[in-house]
Every structure is written in C-alpha cells, then in structure tokens.
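Q: Hi! First time doing this. I have a protein sequence and I read that you can turn it into a structure. Is that right? Here it is:
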Amino acid sequence: MNRRKRLERCFSYQELDRPGVYSRTGFPRNDPTYDKLKKYIQEKTELKRGWSGRKIRTSYKTESYKEPYNEDFERHITMLHTPKGELRRTRLASLKGQPGLAETYFIKNREDAEKYLSLPIPEINGDISSFPEAQKSIGNAGIVDVSLGMNPGGSVAMLFGTDNFAMMSLTDRDIIHELCKRQMDVYIENLKFLLDNDIGPFFSMAGQEYINPPIHSPKDFHDFNYKYDKPIIDMIHNSGGYVHIHCHGSIKGVLRDFVDMGVNVLHPFEAPPMGNITPSEAKEIVRGKTCLEGNIQINRMYEASPDEVWDETRQLIKETFDDRTGLIVSPTASPYIRGEGETCFPRYKAMIDAVLEWK
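A: Yes, that's right. Below is the predicted 3D structure, encoded as structure tokens:
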C-alpha cells in the first residue's frame, strides 16, 4: 500500500495495513539542525502538501505601518477600511526570531462589529494552476491538503480576541451570529469556486479551539462552531471530498459534535494535562466514523528518551487501532525549539519506526 493510498483509507475509515504516520512541518525558519529530521520525514512518513484555498479571495483594503516598541519587539499596526469607518489592529513582531504576540484586535465593541459587517463579500477569483502541479509533485507519497483557513467561528473569535469574544458572546450574542453567518457565506462562495474548478478532494479547517471548553461551554461550541461548520462540511462531502480539522484543547465534551459534523480526520486528541481525553476514550466515541490523528505530545520529542517515545507510540496503537482503522500517529504540533533538531531527531525516528515496524 503506497503512502497516498494509506492516507486515503485513513480519511475514508477503511482497513489499513498499518497506521499512518505524519508530522506537521512548521519548523523554525533557517534552522539546519532539523535537516536530518526533514529528510527522514520526507522519506518515511505519509506526506501532506499544503495548498491554500484562500488566495482566490479578493483582499480588503488595508494600510500597515510599524513603530518601535522595545529592544525585543516592534509594533505592527494594520488599518482596515470599511464603508462605516476604520478598524485598527496591532501586533508585536519579534526582532529576535521568536513568535509574535497579538496586542489589540479589529473588533473591540458592537460598533466595530457593525463596521466589519458593512464590508462587501469578497470576490472569489484567482489563479489555481498550481494545484495540479502540487498533485503531480507529491505523487504517491501523500495528498494535497487544500487549506480553507480558520473556520467561521474561529475567524470571528480572532477579530475580537479571546477575552473580548467571550464577553460579547454574553452581551452581544446576536451580532456574533451575524458575523459567523457572514464568514460562513464567504467560505461557501470560496468552496463553490474550488469545487467548480476540480480542486480537492482533501480539505482542512482550523480555529474551532478558539470556541472550546474551558473558556466556552459546549453550547457555545455547538452554536458558533457546529452550526456554521456543518453546511461547509456537508458541501465537501456532497462533492465526494473529505475534511480534516485541527483543534487543540479539552475536546472530550465536544468530540461527539466533531463526529456528528462529519469530520473525517481530527488532530489532535490530547490527554491531561494539555487536554482531557485518553486515546481509548476518544476511540470509543469516534469509532467507525472519524480518524484520529495524534497523539504524542510534542514536548516528548525533546524531553523523553527514544525508548520512551517508542513505548508511548506502541501503546497508542494498541489503544486505538484494534479495528485496524482510523489512526494517523502524529505529534501534537510541529517541531518548534530553535537549534534543537539534533535532540529531536532520534525521538522522532523512534515514533516513526515504531509505526513502520508495527505488525
């Protein structure tokens, strides 16, 4: 069974010769210590080549500029022009190669939300010629993953920021629904264009974690994620396609919603302390319907011994692969510590080899 076929069978919940094995690839930039690991992943694992399904949307008019902040960061300011006035967002960008930090967000109150709602639905057009090229280049080593970006609820939450979104979900719930509906409409128009141009069949979304326990209730998850994601997922399924969702956090109370939405592959499913569900518990909920992707905590790729990673991987397979379906072994996130690729490599290799040698 080649690597592409194995992933196809994972997404469609069919019997496998062995579990899939995969890694996200958001490596630190310009870090040659990870070259050996990148080569091993390329040669040995099931691959997903990302292709953005969002570049075909017309961008809104913005203005950006920078100003000093301190010796570690500079402030990046973005102004978004709407028919009802300007919206302002600021972000602190690292000057030393570290992750950036969101500082303020476009929507701070109901008036800002009304400004955003005054924006027209973006035009959907663009060059899609790179998609068949991506399919050809990956061949039988894997699939092309068409990223739709942040889901409607998550993209709305990021317009507010976590705390303000939580507060306004209590005080101004109606306008949050308006924003989610608007974002869903953008997604659907985007998806129509992609499907009409034979883009697919593997699609992905993220962002559900922004409306997830413990900050939000299961009802919030259902109202703002399930309600606006399901029409998109149904549209993909009706075209013969598949959906991958990336959602960190405590998903035990909402995992059934992911299954009922029709999610084909879910990454990750985290045990305490990062999440609240064990592999065996997750398997019993998703069995026969959703493939689990994960779950080896990424810190184990730096802190555990290779033997410990091997044992954890074999135990994961034992708990979630008894029916020989629905498992892609994967760390919970990309390798992330700059300069530690040589530390990471033998632990990653142990995880990958534990899958390749499984019988």
